[in-house]
Amino acid sequence: MSSTAPRHTALDALHRSLGATMTDFAGWDMPLRYGSERDEHTAVRTRAGLFDLSHMGEITVTGPQAASFLNHALVGNIASVGTGRARYTMICRSDGGILDDLIVYRLAETEAGSAHYMVVANASNAQVVLDALTERAAGFDVEVRDDRDAYALIAVQGPESAGVLKSLTDADIDGLKYYAGLPGTVAGVPALIARTGYTGEDGFELFVKPKHAVELWQALTKAGEGVGLVPCGLSCRDTLRLEAGMPLYGHELSTSLTPFDAGLGRVVKFEKEGDFVGREALQEAAARSEQNPPRVLVGLVAEGRRVPRAGYDVVADGRVVGEVTSGAPSPTLGKPIAMAYVDAAHAAPGTTGVGVDIRGSHEPYEVVALPFYKRQK
């Protein structure tokens, strides 16, 4: 088998049996949509949706020095994450450029004195992150293990997701905080149950062994029948995260940007103990952004119907003042939206006179604060 052949998740045959339109994503064959992406999007906003996220990259870090190692390798303060909690963070190059954004879970200790973490990387960067962590582990008493094949990942997202999950587990779902995870059994399947997601809704991500994936998917589907749960593809995942103002690596984040350029300087913890990769460059980037504000990540809402796409120029007063990073029709707002980096002078919410150059035509847009959509809690 050639290395260019796409990888298949444990749910591949099931997706095909459901009539999914498949697409290549980061070397994986993944469901783009099952029917209408608008209907799938709306189901997650109003009811519940089921996603296969088995392409995400899980990397296990264990050992007596796991906490200090992750503090050195990543920009966040991972040592302060409590057992059963998760943290959003980034891994940067020594020049401060973002290699990936990550979620790090601190799991129960494996044996006396040995901390146990799971680092979840984006599918497109999983190998890059694994290589960087392996390289940075030199001199630390830790083991960095590629666990991408050890897990399938199924997400149930939407306002009805907690109810669906509660019907299948006796784990304390109500007591599970956002960005926390606990081991439990769902429909008889051992799982790490995490209250995380990428949709702007309440939801859960279930890490299970690949051999249990089909059984769990079918149990969740059955449990969600009464509340209108539907299978969802990557297409609506993108519009959901865009409405929620969540960055996507390769669009809002890249090696050419530091977390400060991306407006996410808060994830960098200079006050933590010890040195970390990129510290010096990031301190310079932080100082630079205070004196000379970088372009700001803003929301743009169309006045017309034309959809902006990544790479399109944002224009004002006849000159280019920014660039679109993501754009799509918003099912919730009923009009096209985009995220874009724009010059600070044009970044204030309510700024008008801003346009997007769509094939030579300057389409009018209004600048708004992110996110476009916030769920009512």
- Largest pleated sheet: 6 strands, mixed
Q: Proportion of β residues?
A: 25-35%
Strand order of the largest sheet: 11-12-13-10-4-14
What's the total number of strands?
Answer: 20
Q: Could you tell me how far the N terminus lies from the C terminus, measured between alpha carbons in angstroms?
A: 49 Å
**Fraction of residues in helices?**
10-25%
Please write the string of helix (H) and strand (E) elements.
Answer: EHEEHEEHEEEHEEHEEEHEHHEEEEEE
- pLDDT under 50 segments (min length 5)? none
SS content category: alpha+beta
Write down the Rg: 21 Å
Total DSSP helices: 8
- Quaternary structure annotation: single chain
Give the integer mean of the pLDDT values: 96
Structure description:
The chain is 20% helix and 34% strand. Helix 2 (37-46) packs across helix 7. The strands form 4 sheets. Strands 11-12-13-10-4-14 form a 6-stranded mixed beta sheet. A 6-stranded antiparallel beta barrel has the order 15-18-17-16-19-20. The protein has helices at 12-17, 37-46, 66-73, 126-136, 161-166, 213-223, 234-243, 279-291, and strands at residues 7-8, 21-25, 28-33, 49-52, 57-63, 86-92, 98-111, 114-121, 143-146, 152-157, 181-186, 189-194, 203-208, 230-231, 296-302, 313-316, 319-330, 335-342, 354-358, 361-368. A hairpin with a 4-residue loop joins strand 17 and strand 18. It starts with 6 loop residues before the first strand and ends in a 9-residue tail after the last strand. It is built from 8 helices and 20 strands. It has 377 residues and is an alpha+beta fold. The mean pLDDT is 96.
